[in-house]
């Protein structure tokens, strides 16, 4: 067997053209990184009569492209679990927002929110102790510290109501925002009578191209029944107008005729891979999905969200909301609605837009 040497001589036009392609690729990569850095995550919790208000707040946030975690009437363990998950998501977000619509009390200089089942009736009838609050309620500061973990930071807005059954001696319903604490986000406290104001401000802000938390808070605090621990000391964007991206003009390369022609011995022909359309079984689609990394699944959720099909959290977990979004995507293509993406659909999602 005789092995023949293969020589590839790149001409100047080839090098310049490849450099241009590399530059365009870097621009597109920068665009993608910027989109990922603009990720905003919100936690929306309601206990008691505030469920409808919290649902409306969540809908307004989602309309601005904010990913939301929603919890309705959680008990102590459920709410603590939700806060831990929110903390994980906050570390991967540019900004965060927390909306709490639930009973809240102050005790011994600290503020607490009351999960479902953490009633105070036992305190008033003499069977309980005020110190039991430490095991049943959750400090408001815990939400503020978690929100602050995002790149830009975050904020907490809480609509407070009085717990059922009255308050024991030594406790009081929260009526004003607590003092600012280092390492914690701003906290806005809204009285139950002024609760509709939160939705009005968020809805009005959502009509703008850019939504900044400090500006929202200024609109809220001019009203009675609203107080803020402190305004953010730097801009925190819940929604930001996309920045124009400049793409370099096409470059025309004129070959240097004095340059010797390239010499290629025994070139190997390369054929671009072809996508073969073949029916795939549900089992094959499930295996395909399991083989995807969590990062790839986040990209799919982000693309489905950009298309207006997905309103959930971009967390790389394909739950019921993702299945519904995939089904809607398949419906728009007049394809079989399985809730599982085919190889062709995966490719199209990655190249669209």
Automatic annotation (TrEMBL):
Transmembrane segments: none annotated. SUPFAM superfamilies: PGBD-like. Residues 298-344 form the Peptidoglycan binding-like domain. It comes from the Bacteria. Gene3D superfamilies: PGBD-like superfamily/PGBD. It holds the Pfam family PG_binding_1. InterPro entries: Peptidoglycan-bd-like, PGBD-like_sf, PGBDSf. This is Peptidoglycan-binding protein. It comes from Parasulfitobacter algicola.
């Amino acid at each position: 067997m005789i092995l023949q040497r293969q020589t590839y001589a790149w001409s100047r036009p080839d090098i310049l053209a490849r450099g241009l392609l590399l530059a365009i690729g870097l621009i597109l990569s920068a665009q993608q990184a910027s989109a990922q850095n603009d990720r905003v995550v919100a936690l929306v919790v309601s206990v008691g009569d505030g469920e409808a208000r919290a649902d409306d707040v969540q809908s307004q946030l989602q309309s601005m492209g904010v990913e939301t975690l929603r919890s309705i009437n959680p008990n102590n363990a459920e709410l603590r679990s939700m806060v831990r998950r929110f903390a994980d998501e906050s570390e991967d977000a540019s900004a965060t927002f927390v909306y709490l619509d639930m009973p809240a009390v102050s005790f011994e200089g600290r503020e607490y929110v009351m999960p479902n089942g953490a009633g105070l009736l036992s305190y008033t009838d003499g069977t309980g102790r005020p110190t039991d609050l430490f095991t049943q309620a959750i400090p408001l500061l815990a939400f503020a510290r978690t929100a602050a973990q995002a790149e830009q930071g975050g904020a907490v807005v809480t609509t407070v109501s009085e717990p059922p059954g009255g308050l024991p001696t030594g406790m009081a319903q929260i009526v004003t925002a607590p003092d600012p604490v280092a390492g914690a986000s701003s906290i806005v406290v809204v009285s139950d009578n002024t609760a509709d104001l939160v939705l009005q401000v968020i809805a009005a802000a959502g009509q703008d191209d850019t939504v900044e938390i400090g500006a929202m808070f200024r609109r809220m605090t001019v009203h009675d029944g609203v107080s803020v621990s402190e305004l953010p000391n730097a801009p925190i964007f819940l929604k930001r107008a996309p920045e124009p991206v400049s793409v370099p003009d096409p470059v025309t390369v004129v070959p240097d005729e004095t340059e010797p022609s390239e010499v290629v011995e025994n070139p190997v022909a390369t054929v671009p891979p072809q996508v073969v359309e073949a029916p795939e079984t549900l089992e094959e689609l499930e295996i395909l999905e399991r083989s995807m990394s969590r990062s790839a699944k986040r990209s799919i959720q982000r693309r489905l969200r950009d298309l207006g099909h997905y309103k959930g959290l971009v967390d790389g977990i394909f739950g019921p909301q993702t299945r519904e979004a995939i089904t809607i995507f398949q419906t728009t293509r007049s394809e079989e609605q399985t809730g599982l993406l085919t190889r062709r659909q995966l490719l199209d999602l990655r190249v669209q837009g």
